[in-house]
Amino acid sequence: MGQTCLTHERIPLLAELDVLIVGGGSAGCCAAIAAAENGRRFGLRVGLIERYGFAGGISTQTLDTFYGFFTPGAAPRKVVGGLPDRVVAELARSTDVFLRENTYGAGIGVTYNPERLKLVWDRLLVNAGVQVWLHTTLVDVETDSLGTATAAVIFSKEGFHRISAQRMIDASGDADLCHWLGLPSEKAGEIDPAQTLTTTFRMCNVDLARFGTEGGKAMLAERMQAAIDSGRHPLPRKAGSAHRMVQENCIATVAVRVADLDATVVEQLTQAELEGRRQAFVYEDFFRDMVPGYEHAKIIGLSHQIGVRETRRVYGEYRLTREDCLTARQFDDAVLLCGAPIEDHRAVGEGESETRWEYVADQQAYGVPYRTLVPKGRDEIWVVGRCFSATHDAHASCRSMAQTMSMGQAAGLAAVQSLQMDCGAREIAISKLRDSLLQLGAVLDLGSESAQQSNKAWKFGDREVAAL
Ligand SMILES: Cc1cc2nc3c(=O)[nH]c(=O)nc-3n(C[C@H](O)[C@H](O)[C@H](O)COP(=O)(O)OP(=O)(O)OC[C@H]3O[C@@H](n4cnc5c(N)ncnc54)[C@H](O)[C@@H]3O)c2cc1C
After folding, report:
1. Cβ–ligand 1 contact at 107 (below 6 Å)
2. Which residue of 45, 80, 276, 376 shows the fewest CB atoms closer than 10 Å?
3. Ligand 1 centre and the CA of 61: distance in Å?
4. Does the CB atom of residue 87 touch ligand 1 within 6 A?
5. Mean pLDDT for each 10-residue chunk of the chain (468 residues)?
6. Test site for ligand 1: of 14, 21, 58, most ligand atoms within 8 A of the Cβ
7. pTM (predicted TM-score)
8. If phi over 0 gives left and psi between -120 and 50 gives alpha, with beta otherwise, what is residue 385?
9. CATH number among 3.10.180.10, 1.10.645.10, 3.50.50.60, 3.40.640.10, domain 8-192+311-463
10. Hey, where are the domains in the chain?
11. Atom of ligand 1 minimally distant from the CA of 68
């Protein structure tokens, strides 16, 4: 099925697991933690492989703000809970997180220190008992005569190894596991235009007080327009976020825009990295030259890699659609909620806006069915995070990290349940899975007490995450 030419028989077995998670992003970490904590009493062995030297994926490689915890609008409701709450509570212990009003329309953001978050993911994974292999990349999948996945083929400094597992969760963002198994997926750009790629950058020595008194965000937008119109700085976008960080006098940006390149084709990904870095320093010149408060600012860091919003989206037992999102559709097998708008960043044509926003009806939230996490016809595999089963538009709404973490916790619990009950992914008793999610603190009903929680000072016991 796979497209590599490895001869599996000669590859040594590194470990035998019950559940293997491929990819340690926000979705994969939550899947692993949920599986390990809940599988412990059954003696289940849970492992996670991650190609980089730290966990978190885009949450630590690229970004600093969780969206999707709250519905947008004047009366925000909290639609996510459970492990994602625990991640925020851990960040709150060291005052590495605050709530941020999002003026672009996605609702309240939870802004954190991504370097601290690396440590938080480490601690949560290790304490849960997850066996973690960093610097380890999935390169193929071994199957039995029926086509069932039986082992991951991995590559590290030690060469090729196999890790066998009864159940696997694809949290690679690019659906690498499903790809090597030959499972069908829709590639970004195949039907709808693909979302653009962004190298994020952070700047220090910013005088935010001066920036504010000189006009803040409105002034920045004017200066961007002026820079483009005059040809003084060739900015790729005239919008984009430049927001305060946990660290004082520092800002983080989501501004760079690289379009029409496929991040699963290595030559194109290389081109994207070069272009993203080039654009970041065009912005540095612009900020220093034209924006009050930034006269002495400098870039102190670029994202670990260019941020990739979408690549492969696997075809699952159900595909979440634009109508499901915009009409706030509810499902009997919902395992998480999402109230985020469709936020589609794309290459602009004449007269088009850089980001397309479309909101869920009446500031409600829709349910995300369990079936979107199960690749079509499979019983030993789940797919979570940005490669879950959704159309382009639905993905553009449901890809925020509060939702990817929630998908992870649902799939982790489902994998344990399937082993415990000796059934396949498609035969899971949904009511039991939803009960386990509720016990963990997940929000599955917009009317619940948790959903009504105040967002002005978000409390974890005696700890508070306040708006700055
Ligand atoms: C530029 C940009 C801005 C965004 N802005 C926001 C925002 O402000 N707030 C928000 O909530 N969301 C935002 N999003 C969306 C959100 O960040 C992502 O959808 C989410 O983080 C995806 O999580 P994930 O765990 O599915 O994937 P990822 O975070 O991509 O994690 C996948 C992990 O798998 C690893 N991996 C990949 N392939 C392999 C392999 N073969 N073997 C082993 N490991 C592998 C990767 O290294 C990575 O750690 C943004 C996304 C981008 C790109």
Report:
1. no
2. 376
3. 8
4. no
5. 66 98 98 98 97 98 96 90 96 94 82 98 98 98 97 97 98 98 96 94 98 95 94 87 94 94 97 98 97 98 98 98 98 97 80 82 95 98 98 98 98 98 98 98 87 71 77
6. 58
7. 0.97
8. left
9. 3.50.50.60
10. 8-192+311-463, 201-302
11. 11
